[in-house]
Amino acid sequence: MGKINKILITTISLVIFSISWNVILAEEENVENTPNSSEEDYLATHIPIYIIIIVSLLTFQTIVLVLLGQPLISPTGLRVWWGDIHSPENSQHIADWYTFTHMLHGLLMFYVTYPLPNPPITVNVAFLIGLVTAVAWEIIENTSCVIERYRKTGASTEYRGDSVTNSFFDSLAMSAGFWLAYGIPWWGTLALGLLEEVVLGVVIRDNMVLNIVQIVYPFKCISDWQERGKKEVTSTGVQEIRRGDEEDD
Asked: Which GO terms describe its cellular component (predicted)?
């Protein structure tokens, strides 16, 4: 099962890069004639500048997280996937359940920054705005006060912030979500967003909406529900260990 997870997450990572770069290069060759497009998309015709801006934002994010004391990778090593949100190892590896909330962030940012603004902006400028919000959030959520807030109100009391690597891939996940929303119809984006929230709510008893609610104005009923889920996971894990010991005997 572990190998399947690694293959799945590696594939998702490759899709992230493929979507992002294919759309950027497509914009260079053909700027769409839509209400939100100018006759010439500066970023699409100046790809090196576009890339420099993206790399600069991600580099800035990395430097600030290092200054905040976040590790480059987990002290135990680096894994492609980590599925236990109640472990201190959560948010320390390349991907975890919360990676999907960052993809949802990208789906939402596409519609907030691209179709809605008046006067309209190009999709590449909209993407940079979305990336700025992702970088800003990655920095904010790794400050000591926000980490402590998550411990008190979130689904995981063991949360210790993101590793630099995890944070980097969170921003890539946002990028993937943005360009995915660009390439599919609005109803596809809506369906994916709802599916993500429902699946995470069922599997880990947390998702983007619950995350925001609990960090801003925590509800005891939600905290208790999440805590019961944690106890169920812990109990299941203990039972599996005991079962394994009995089989060894």
From this structure: plasma membrane
Q: Is residue 233 part of a domain?
A: no
Residue 230, SS3 per DSSP: helix
In a domain, 223, yes or no: no
pLDDT digits (tens, 9 = 90+) for 7-42: 445 545 544 555 455 455 444 444 444 445 444 688
- Residue with the two structure tokens 């919000």: 133
Amino acid sitting at position 93: H
Domain residues for the domain of 166 are 2-218
HSE of 63, CA atoms in CB hemisphere, 13 A: 6
pTM (predicted TM-score): 0.80
Which of 213, 238, 239, 237 minimizes the C-alpha distance to 226? 213
CA–CA gap between residue 178 and residue 170 (Å, rounded)? 13
Number of domains in the chain: 1
52 in any annotated domain: yes
The torsion angle over the Cα atoms of residues 109, 114, 118 and 120, rounded to 10 degrees, is: 150
> Is 235 domain-assigned?
no
